[in-house]
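Please go through this protein, sequence plus structure tokens, and consider how the sequence yields the tokens. Keep your notes short.
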Amino acid sequence: MNPLLALVDAIERFDRFDGVASSVSKAVGWAVQPQFVRNLLSGTPIGHPLHPIMTDLPIGAWSMSTVLDTIGGKASEPAADLLVAVGIATAIPTAASGLNDWSDTTGKARRVGTVHAVANSTALCLFTSSAVARATGSRSVGKALGLAGFGILMFGGFLGGHLSYSNAVNINKTAGRIGPKEWTPVLAESELADGEHRKVSAGKVTVLVYRTGSSILALDSVCSHMGGPLEEGKIDGGCVICPWHGSTFRLEDGGIVRGPASNRQPSYEARVNDGQIEVRRRRAAS
């Protein structure tokens, strides 16, 4: 087995610190509880997870500072120092968005995420020490600390990629769920009373249908954030709240009211026809 993959496998199986990680996760969850904070750190306003975007800033800055330290001359020293400082400044909000995402993970993903966070925090400490050394005239020490920080940063980045592409953390769980484009019967009208909601099958997907008066509203039943079962969620104020992490979607159109979801929920048109509730995939506005 590839040595790096063997190491990741060992990390995924190392459960000795699960209790500590769970306590830290609860503390982070409490800190990000306010709706504005949760939405901002999750990337809800931009419709895309924030953390992957933010990581480009410190990684890019520190990568270029390492290049200048390695092959640049004396004239490039001010630019290298500036890039180290930019990386430090942008690493803080990057870490905040990452902790927000990590707090929703469990099991293997939480273990890998913990080591990912430790590696990146170590890199931050090394680059901060590098900045201090540069500022006090110890440039050779600063370069060595920066090079060490860069190596650890690359390992942290590798673990981040594993979380996204192997553990599917924060990947849109509804991306491949495509419901019927034609009206499809899913439930007898008499089986859904006013104020009730239920999960039904519609072609190859499952849909949450909710009745309010004479209106039927329908969304994909799988939460786009982490795949939570929306049919087990609470209906409140025209929205459904995912029971896993609290993502809140408008039943009318699938729009996000509260994160951590950053991808809106697929919405379906619904009608009553000949005693049957029918749904179809909502057509894009022309």
Remarks:
- Residues 130 and 142 are 4 Å apart (CA to CA).
